[in-house]
Amino acid sequence: MAWGTPSRERRVLKAGHSSIAVTLPKPWAEAMNLRPGDLIVFDQNDDGTLYLKPAPLPGADAPGAPFLVQARSFDTPGVLERLIVGAYRVGHDAIEIRTDVPLGPDRVEELVQTARNLLGVSVVAQEPTRMILQNFIDPSKYGLPQLVQRMKMILVAFLDETEEVLQRRGPSRRLATLEEEAGKVLALLVRQLFLASRDWSLARRIGSPDPRQLLEWRVVVHALEELSEMFGETLTVLGDGADELTPDVVAVLAATVPALKVQLKSVVEALMHPSLDNACGVFQESGPASLGALPFTRALARKAPAARLAHDHLQRGARCLSLLAEVAIDRAVASGSETILVEAA
What's this model's pTM, rounded to 2 decimal places? Predict the structure, then answer.
């Protein structure tokens, strides 16, 4: 049920001697878990429109209050990075790090590098025992469809690089850059979903008019993250096992990548533009069996174990795309705009 159902029109009612009132749509009130007596916050725009949302719960952090991470010291590499990434992904704009023992050069570099790897984040204050990172991104400027399309471009670039590695039979030159770019976009996608789950007006502005679609978007983002990891692992093992890339091994792998690239593009297209006819066609054409890949024989597997592992990653990528094709059908069915007949097998 979209927000436009029931009717978007509401009659103004008299309330008391001199006040007027308008009822709230029941689906929205239930989604917001509103009860009689709860407070609503209104924001008025210059054009006269109103945005409304539930008031913050008592004791909740004030908007803009930094997320504080405090410890006597941070000695274990990677802990600060994960804390900052987690705070960013769940929607915090300001992140403050405090310690009793001054941060060492390695931890300072870790913090600075983490900020560089998150879109919109900068270090705005730095002291021996205190650092503040601030996010400057306006979430309403980053739509979910646009970010998914950006991830598709990065994943296609992973596959382009795979073809280049197979042709050169040497390590990847772009792996680190592609992984960094994918990490930035994926972190922002997760952040957008967290923010949208708390603000339905933002959800509508970034491409999720029905709140139930946020669950679909989360599945899509998780699958894109899996694809990024698998394609990155493919490039890693091919680089480590470059000496295994004999012509017969390359022929098997090279036959898989172009078909996988076509699947990726068609599945994302079906996700972004829901059509039951198109989604069913994409689903039928997705999955490992549709790659038309040459068999990776036992003899090849014994001769080239790293290449076999890369082949397995590509096959898993195809299965992941098959999952996304299922989500594309769900989105098309939810739109409820068409009916088709599917021939029985």
Answer: 0.79
- 252 is written with which tokens? 């098997």
Classify each residue of 176-194 as buried b or exposed e, where b means 16 or more C-beta atoms within 10 Å of its C-beta. Answer: eebbebbbbbbbbbbbbbb
Element (H, E) at 99: strand 94-99
DSSP letter at 122?
A: E
Domains contained in the chain, CATH given: 13-54 (2.10.260), 67-135 (3.30.110), 141-335 (1.20.58)
CA of 281: how far to CAs of 138, 227, 277, in Å? Answer: 37, 21, 6
pLDDT band of residue 345 (cuts 50, 70, 90) is very low
pLDDT at 277 over 80: yes
For residue 134, give the H/E element and its range. Answer: strand 130-135
Query: What is the tens place of the pLDDT at every residue in 157-202?
Result: 999 999 999 999 889 999 999 999 999 999 999 999 999 998 888 8
Nearest to 257 by CA among 162, 147, 135, 134: 162
CA distance 237 to 16: 73
How far, in Å, CA of 234 to CA of 213, rounded? Answer: 31
**239 pLDDT higher than 70:** yes
CA distance 345 to 115: 53
Q: What is the CA radius of gyration of the chain?
A: 25
Question: What is the rounded distance in angstroms from the CA atom of residue 9 to the CA atom of residue 14?
Answer: 16
Query: What is the SS3 assignment for 119?
Result: coil
Q: Which amino acid is at 136?
A: F
Q: How many CB atoms lie within 10 A of CB 317?
A: 29
